[in-house]
Amino acid sequence: MCSSRRNHTFVVASGRFRVRRGPALHMSPAEAIAAALLGVAAAALIYRTRRNYYRPLELHVNTDGCVRRYTLSSRALQAMPQSTVLDDFSTGVTVAEVLRSVVGREAEGASGVFYATDGVKSKPIPADELGDGVLVHTGPSGGPVRGGPIRVRYPPGKAVQPSPCGKETVPLALKGVVKLCVSA
Question: Is-above-0.70 flag for pTM?
Answer without folding.
Answer: no
